[in-house]
Every structure is written in C-alpha cells, then in structure tokens.
Amino acid sequence: MAISLTRTERRPVAKKERTAFTLALADVIALVLAVSAAQLLRFGEGANGVTVGGFHTTYTVVSTVLVVTWLISLIGFGGWVPWPKHLHGPSYMPPIRSTVLVVALLAAIALTFEADLSRVYLAWALPLGLSGLLITRFVCRIWISAHRTRGRYIRRALVVGTPERARELAALFADSLSPIAVKVVATASAETAIGPEMLRLIEEHDVDVIVLTEERAEANVRQLLWDVEGAGAVVWLSVDVPELAAPRAEFHPIERLPIIEVAPADRSITKRRGKRAFDIVFSFLGLLVALPLILVSAVLIKLDSPGPVFFQQVRIGRDGKEFGIHKLRTMRPGAEREVAELQHRNEGSGPLFKIKDDPRVTRVGRFLRRTSIDEFPQLWNVFRGEMSLVGPRPPLPKEVEKYDRASLRRLIVKPGMTGLWQVNGRSDLTWEQGVRLDLFYVENWSLGGDLQILFQTVAVMVRPNGAY
Questions:
Q1: Is the pTM of this model over 0.85?
Q2: Of the four listed, 3, 109, 188, 250, which is most buried by Cβ atoms within 10 Å?
C-alpha cells in the first residue's frame, strides 16, 4: 500500500472559526440595522407600543425579539457553517429558510395572541433583513474568491482511491480543493482498515475534506466514518454518476438505503419556447447596440483589404439542417481555397482546422477575432431562429462528417454564438474537452445558465484567451 503526499504550508485551524465568527457578526449588524431602519421609517423617533396576548410592550422589544429569533433560526439552518463546508463560500439558503420560518412564526403569534403588529413595520423589516443577510454572503464569497487567487482559503483534501481516479478528482477540484495527500489502495486491499492512518494524515496536514473515490464494502466505509469523527474534516463520497447527468442527480435516502436519482433531461416545448423568446428579445437589442460597431468595422475592413465586408459560410444547425452563417470578413478573399496548402500547419484537434498565426487573417481581422466583433452579425441568425445566443458552436459540414455518436448529440439543440466551450478556453481547448463541455450544455441547459454564460462571454471579450 503506497501513500503519496504533497506537503503544503500549514495554517491555523482557528481560521475556520474566525471566518464563521466574522460572518455571524456581519449578520447581527445587518439585522440590527434592518429592523432599526424599519422601526424608524414606520414610527420615527416616537415610542410606539403593541399589545401581544394582553401584554403591552414597545416596538424596541419587538425588534430585539425579532433579531434574536432570526439569528437563532439562522443557527438552526446552518447559516454560520465554517467555509470548508461549501465550495464557493457561505450558502444563500439558510437566510432564505430562516426568513420563511420567521414569517411563519410571526403569522402564528398574530393569530394565537391577537397581536396587532404593524404591517408597514414588517413590510420594511423582513425584506431589508433578508437583503442584508444575502448581501453579507455575497460579499463574503467575493472576499474568499479574491483570497483564493493568492492561495488562501483553499481546502486541504485527502483523496482516497485508485491513482487514476484520485488524479482526475484532483484536477477537477483544482480551483477550490488543494489535494495534499493521495492514498493509493490496491483493489485487493480494498477491505484494509485505514482509519488510524487517516487520522494521522488529517492531523499532520490539517485536512478539511476527505474524498472517498472508490467503491468499498459497507462495513469499511462505516468504520472510516467512525474513525474520522471529531477530526474536523467533512467526508465526501464520490458516486460514479456520469458527469453529464450530475446536475440532475439528487440524493434520496429510502429507509436505510442511499439512492441517487437522476432525472431525465428537460426538453419540454415550454422550455424551448422560453429560450426562443429570450433569443428574439436579446438578439434584437443586441443588433441595435452592435450596429454602430458593425458599420465602423465594415469601413475598416474595406480600407484594410479588397473584397466583401461580410462573409457567409454553410454551417450545420439543429437536427443536421444547413444554414448560412453571417460574419464580418477577417481573412483575405479566397482563404477557404488555401486550406489544403496550410493543412501541415494545422494546430486544431479532432476535425477542427486552426492556426494560431494564420497568414490568411488580415490586420483588422486579427483584432476583430480577438474581440469577437466579427461574430456580431450572427445576431441576425439568432433573430431568424437558425441559431441561439447560447449553445454549441455551429460546425462545418466536413466536420460533422467526422463526428462520432457522442459528438452528434451536439446537434439536438440550436448552435449558439457563445457557449461553455467559448468561455472556458476557446481554441486553447482540445477537441475532446470542447465536446465534453458542449455535451454538458446540451444535457443541462437552462435560461439561468444561459445568462451566466452570456455574462462570462463579456468577460472573455474584455480579456480574450484562446481567440484566434
């Protein structure tokens, strides 16, 4: 049995508790300010009272009880769990759940004790309090993300499993997990009791997360959970669910049996119509905004090289239908006829033809490509319904001829102007990596996800990587 360790600088365990304390303090301040503002907006500086079950009191007491109850419910819903418990920082769900509980308690008190609580006061206090709690978590997430760029607040993980699976998870969690120890267990030794060794590694390397990656006998996992209990580390069980279905997987404990349910992909007509309406509205607005840039680019293209301003090319759309894609011309005329001569310089993987310093690209064209301005005319394709704002890249017919069965699934949705491939490296990715991202999108797309990709696309346009 071999153990491979990569040591990292130790940090105080108290860092977790300090982070939780800071978040708790911020929540207290947010709620106190919210209910104080609500009381001031409703009653001004005057002293107003309320009767609850025959007992007369002031709104200062009501505000104090409201804040304390809110904070207790936050604790109950895990609102101050130390940061290693969540991937990107404190969760938004505890504030929402605690607010719902507070509203339910207020309604019950009003009915049971006939309390005549001011609706205006509550209409200010509840939204302001919830907004304050959510804002503190938003700021905390940004703060943690900023520190992670400098190597702080990175989880220390102990990954247990076969070398191949351990390396795979180490790469997957690279942005938020810092694997410090990988325990390689031979298949024949899967039943070996490794609890004491786990405790030693956890203590020695200040481990936050233990990731179990291999299938183990029930007794072995149970014993391991008992052994690490109280060590301050959480345990993740990596279930072998295909990555495309992972977002649709949900844990359902039935009796004593852990069940992972994978819901089918949602391809309802209502969802598709919602996406189409989204595309029509935003492609129209996009055309209005992009039109001046397109006109300026057209003049620059004409001044830079002879030939037409626009470039049209046959691409393959949804269900294998051909359509003509519109782009601003970035290459010299007749560039497509030179592909065979430049094939020996091809840097693209799979069926793609890419050259980083393509000699056919004009001076203006190089700028248009790096900023993606050459793609703006495709907003017309989106408006016409041939493309979508977000989706897999539209392939050439000769590329589709080389597709395998998995790659063909990219054609069950409309191609997009941008997509997961484009915001995760563009031409720097291999063909296999790009297809994997496109397939993930095909299986799990949503309007919320489309909005996130569009926001990421703006960032990529500002700081282009892999665009050539």
A1: no
A2: 109
